[in-house]
Amino acid sequence: MPTLKIDGKDIAVPAGTSIIEAAKKAGTFIPHYCYHPGLSVAGNCRMCLVEVEKSPKLQISCFIPVADGMVVHTENDRVKEAREAVLEFLLVNHPLDCPVCDQSGECELQNYYMNYGLYESRLFEDKVKKEKVVPIGPTVMLDGERCVLCSRCVRFCDEVTGTHEMGIVNRGDHAEITVAPGKELDNAYSGNTVDICPVGALTDRDFRFKCRVWFLEKTSSICPGCSRGCNIEIHWNKERPYQTPNERVMRLKPRVNPEVNQWWICDEGRYNYHFIDQNRVLYPMKNNGKDLVQASWQEVMEEGSWVMKELQNTAVIVSTDVTLEDLWIAKELFIHKLGIQTIAYLPTKKSGEEDHLLRKSDKTPNTKGAQALGFEAKANEIFSLAEAGKIKTLILFGHNLIDLLGKERAQKIAEKVDSMVWIGSNQHEGMNLAKWIIPSSVYAEKDGTFMNYEGRVQRIFKAFPALGESKAEWQILKEWAQHIGINLPYENSSVIFEKMVQAESAFNGMSYQKLGEEGVLLNDSKDEGRGTMDDGRKKHVL
Amino acid sequence: MSACPKILSQHFDVPNAHKIEVYCSRGGYTSARKVLTEMGAEQVIEEVKKSNLRGLGGAGFPTGMKWGFIPRQSKKPCYVVINADEGEPGTFKDRYILCLDPHALIEGVIIACFAVKSHKAFIYIRGEYVEPVRIFRGAVEEAYEKGFLGKGIFGTDYSLDLIIHVGAGAYICGEETALLDSLEGKKGFPRLKPPFPAVKGLFNSPTVINNVETLACVPHIINKGAEWFSKLGCEKNGGTRLYSVSGHVKKPGLYELPLGTSLKEIIYEHAGGIRQDLILKAVIPGGISSSILKANEIDIRMDFNSLAAAGTMLGSAGIMVMDETTCMVKALLVATRFFAHESCGQCSPCREGTGWILKIVERIWEGKGRPQDLDNLIDISQNIEGNTICAFGDAAASPVISYIKKFRGEFEHHIKTGSCDLVEAALK
């Protein structure tokens, strides 16, 4: 392994590592715009220039691989001057419209100016004018004047999605990024171009002007949009909720996990957050034969002693939207304590599009988890039994029977079942078939874990309190259990997880702490394909 | 006056020199025939190495060495690319070869391709060269008809195709890696190096890129021997040079002279001196990218090393002569306008810097200069210099720095008075 000296500090890194990555390992940040570890090296911004001893010119640290005995300076006067000069060049034609720029607060021009600039302006000339507020696709807005031509977005569309919508036209200081004639930036991953844009050139049409970024609170989570389990951050408005009444979540951003999603998330997942704040079931309800009317928790818990009465005729269908902890409590209660055999799992969403990059056809986050805990995919058997009148009580977890089975069959089942209990978070037509409605919280409101399609267990974190009277599924089940005299002595998801690990051999060796940032794979999950994308491309390793 | 051995320009005065019959009647294609039938590839490369032929596009890299970099065993095809994107202001030598001796170039291409075992060559000709393209295309067709290009050349089993590609008018496409991008159908952006084209060039394959003048020398080296060729020049610089002389001289034009001929001799003897016998003010020795020389600096040998020692470069040997009527502010305005217009826009210092410089120089020219502008211009140029992907940034910086440093008084006067009355006063 080559050993080099960066700012006086010795560091050994694998051969082929770039100076910028070696510096990162040595704890030295080298400012950059065009470099992105997930894309090819363009070397055009020149912000990452460093001095390499024995090289007459400054070298771009994103491009130059380390060599044994190399001596690099990233902070000497020559480097600082070059950095300041590059920054000055980048601002020559920049409109400096920060007060009305949505990137403000997370803009690398602002950050680097404060860190490496702070010079007196010596610009007296008119700036080059370019088009502003250009919708280049359904999700992205382009401002040509703010662009630093780093070409990250162009390379993303060329190298990651392979859709080639974007390019650079014109020369010199009239160069600008644009979409190909007659094309739109309309691929399944378009939102990532906004994430990787280091300045305010590309902004998210969904997020624009909703909230200043410094008011955002950030919570790590896992995208519940499909079984990939992409690592995300939930950005929510903590400081000024009055700006956006009844809306807490402002946007979702990808969180780097080289083993799962690298730097990216799909648009389907990215914009799939409105359900957190909209159309929620806020309180328990009961069907009075005509309508659903509000009920109290007490009522639901006490009158819901149905489970006790008709045990042999009770069926449970859990969903794959809920956490492993929710599922394991369901298993404890329904299977171990109550001995119910008619229990199955069923995703609440129909399968959808899958591609070579991230998107999986299973649009729920925890199917593999339900399988790992031994739930079977025999919901259809249960529905047939229900149709035949052999099920008295049917417990559903958010499922929309009308959507899944069609109106006719759903209604028939509802008629044949004495009491249908529906535990869910968001309202839909199918909910009206139930006798009892119990409001549950959504993933952003709870701690827990999901298991992705390859058997990777990853943590989600509670961003904010559950809306209305809703509660996590495991809590609901625990309270029920109490009402029928069963004690499930678990106070939080970490305790449940530890219990689950003890009880389920497949989870051997796991612990809440060990899951860490990248998650942990289930013991028996296959090793094949690890380290490569679905299309066989090598994964970038950070 | 030096004795002028005519090599590259020996056919220029012959009527119909561009026709293949005329070229063949004067011994044309005998060296290519000799190479293909009697010599081995390594032998050819050795001969070119011995000749001390250096790249005549501007950089002066030893040609034989460049050919030697091509991997001997490559799974990928190897390409030879001829850079005929002659766009350097003040330079018009390749144009003469394309028009007046195209077969010498084709013959040089055949030899080069044979030496590096390439079967496909591309010539990238500047888009504005409408007439040269027409003539060269005719010559290529003739060569195909004669069997000098195509399959089984000279009865051997060697075959070669030469493809003509006409550029679309970007100066940067004369930079060899931008040329490759352009040839591949992309926007002409210089590439990061390494890898160098010899390893990963056109379509990711090993590629030799040579200038027109360079390859036109090759048949003569084969014909008359490496030793003869190397003796024509000076140390480590074989052969002669085509000097494009333009500007305020009595006889502007193309002069074939030995490398190392004195600049003074070229201007005052070959080009006939300054028009109307006015006083010489400044000379650009190697195309617009080279630093300017003052009148008292022209007693200098025109070779790579002497000019480098004087802080400028031989470059494309495009000599631009300016007499005392020239306003240096205007001269710099023209140069900066060119570089601002031609910067490809890929890397930040050059993209933003060239435009910024132009705006300042424009402002000075319009009489709105400020005292700090000159230092700023030099500082901005120095911030571009050495910090860009390709040599364009250095090229754009050198006129600004050299014009201002050498004619600072005139610039200051222009800023102070807002006019060129200094030039006018000198003429009275």
How would you characterize this protein structure?
The complex is a heterodimer of chains A (542) and B (428). Chain A is α+β, with helices and mostly antiparallel strands and 542 residues long. Chain A is built from 16 helices and 23 strands. Chain A has helices at 19-25, 77-92, 108-117, 152-160, 191-196, 267-270, 274-277, 297-303, 306-309, 324-337, 367-372, 379-387, 401-405, 407-416, 473-483, 493-503, and strands spanning 3-6, 9-12, 49-52, 59-60, 71-73, 134-135, 140-142, 166-169, 176-179, 202-204, 216-222, 231-237, 249-254, 285-287, 292-294, 314-318, 343-345, 393-396, 419-424, 436-439, 448-451, 456-460, 520-521. Chain A has a 7-stranded mixed sheet with strand order 15-14-20-19-18-16-17, with helices on both faces. A 5-stranded mixed sheet of chain A has the order 2-1-5-3-4, with helices on both faces. In chain A, strand 6 and strand 7 form a beta hairpin. In chain A, helix 2 (77-92) runs antiparallel to helix 3 (108-117), helix 10 runs parallel beside helix 15 and helix 10 (324-337) packs across helix 16. The two termini of chain A are 17 Å apart. The model of chain A is unreliable at 526-542 (pLDDT under 50). In chain B, the strands form 2 sheets. In chain B, strands 6-5-9-7-8 form a 5-stranded mixed sheet, covered by helices on one side. Chain B has a 4-stranded parallel sheet with strand order 3-2-1-4, with helices on both faces. Chain B is α/β, with parallel strands linked by helices and 428 residues long. In chain B, a hairpin with a 5-residue loop joins strand 5 and strand 6 (253-258). The model of chain B has no long low-confidence stretch (mean pLDDT 95). Chain B starts with 19 loop residues before the first helix and ends with a helix. The chains are: A alpha+beta (542), B alpha/beta (428). Chains A and B meet through helix 2 of A and helix 13 and helix 14 of B.
